[in-house]
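Quick bug: Putative flavoprotein output formatted oddly.
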Amino acid sequence: MKYIIAGTDRPDSNTLKVSKIIQGIYKELGEAVEIIDLKELKQHLHDDIHYGKPSEALQPYINKVLGSDGLIVVCPEYNGSMPGILKYFIDHLKFPESFEYRPVCFVGLGAMFGALRPVEHLQGVFGYRNAFIFPERVFMMNVFKIINAEGQLTDELMKSLLVKQAKGFQKFAEALKTYKLDANSFIESKKST
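Here's what came back:
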């Protein structure tokens, strides 16, 4: 299963609204994906002060990442970068297996530049951790103007870009899996040796 990481803990965030829109797109494409809402796990990030030794309450979220067929990271721009909670969550994930050979794609949410900077920062982090980064990123400019009160996307161009990304990311992840180049295949091959 793929997971969407809603990369903020802000209540009633556009990030979670967009994550739900993306989840709906994947459902229309015949694939169930789940959302990891950082607002839900926020209370558990401070249960244990040692990186790499998560609390029992945090473990289910870590297991989702470790078993995922791919990650869709939805990231708003906070002060020119990613939200601190997203980086803090990443820092709690096992190294290297959390991202190594795992397909990942990015959707940025912001004002004028659609979160170009935080997505580029994330690409550096995920690249360092040897993830397979899908090259088609989506940058949602002025996101607060294109999401209505009901949480629906009103911009058809943005919707078409999200659909195009989802279709491409499905093919990308499936190709890696077919040739056993993805993280889960890599982990299985290590177990059998």
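Actually, after a second look the formatting is fine. The chain has eight helices and six strands. Closing.
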